[in-house]
C-alpha cells in the first residue's frame, strides 16, 4: 500500500479520460467512478473495472455509502442505485441549489 508520504504508489487503473466523479466504498473496498455516461466499479487490487450503470447523463459527482451509490447528473437530478443483488435505480429529484455552491 501507498505510504502517507507518497512512497510505494501504485497505478490501479489507466483511464482514457479524466473521470467526472470518484468514490471509495470502504466497507467493500470498491472504487466507483463516472466516465462519460457510465458509472464504473473496480477494486483496490486494480482488477479490470466494469460498467455497473450505463444509463446516466453526464454525471458530475458520486458517493458510495451503505451498499448504494449516489450521483448527480448535469440536469441537477440526484440518483441512487442499490448495488446488492440486482440493480435498482431511484430518482430523488432536482437539487434546490446550484452545484457551484458545493465547490
Protein architecture, described:
The protein contains no helices and eight strands. The chain is globular, with a radius of gyration of 14 Å. The chain has a four-stranded antiparallel beta sheet with strand order 1-2-3-4, with no helix packed on it. The protein has 103 residues and is mostly beta strands.
Radius of gyration: 14 Å
**Whole-number mean pLDDT:** 80
Strand order of the largest sheet: 1-2-3-4
Q: How many distinct beta strands?
A: 8
Which blocks of ≥5 consecutive residues have pLDDT under 50?
A: none
Specify the structural class: mainly beta
Helical content stands at: under 10%
Main β-sheet description:
4 strands, antiparallel
Number of helices: 0
User: How far is the N terminus from the C terminus?
Assistant: 30 Å
Strand content: over 45%
Oligomer designation: single chain
Spell the H/E element sequence: EEEEEEEE
- What sort of overall outline do the alpha carbons produce when their principal axes are compared? globular
How would the blueprint of this fold be written?
Elements: E1 21-25, E2 30-35, E3 38-43, E4 50-53, E5 59-65, E6 68-73, E7 77-82, E8 88-94
Antiparallel strand pairs: 1-2, 2-3, 3-4, 5-6, 6-7, 7-8
Give a brief description.
With 103 residues, the protein is mainly beta. The chain has strands at residues 21-25, 30-35, 38-43, 50-53, 59-65, 68-73, 77-82, 88-94.
Amino acid at each position: 500500500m501507498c505510504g502517507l508520504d507518497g512512497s510505494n504508489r501504485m497505478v490501479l487503473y489507466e483511464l482514457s479520460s479524466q473521470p467526472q466523479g470518484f468514490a471509495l466504498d470502504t466497507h467493500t473496498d470498491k472504487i466507483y467512478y463516472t466516465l462519460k455516461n457510465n458509472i464504473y466499479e473496480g477494486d483496490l487490487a486494480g482488477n479490470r473495472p466494469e460498467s455497473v450503470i450505463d444509463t446516466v447523463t453526464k454525471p458530475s459527482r458520486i458517493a458510495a455509502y451503505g451498499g448504494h451509490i449516489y450521483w448527480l447528473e448535469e440536469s441537477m437530478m440526484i440518483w441512487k442505485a442499490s448495488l446488492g443483488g440486482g440493480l435498482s435505480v431511484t430518482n430523488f429529484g432536482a437539487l434546490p441549489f446550484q452545484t457551484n455552491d458545493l465547490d
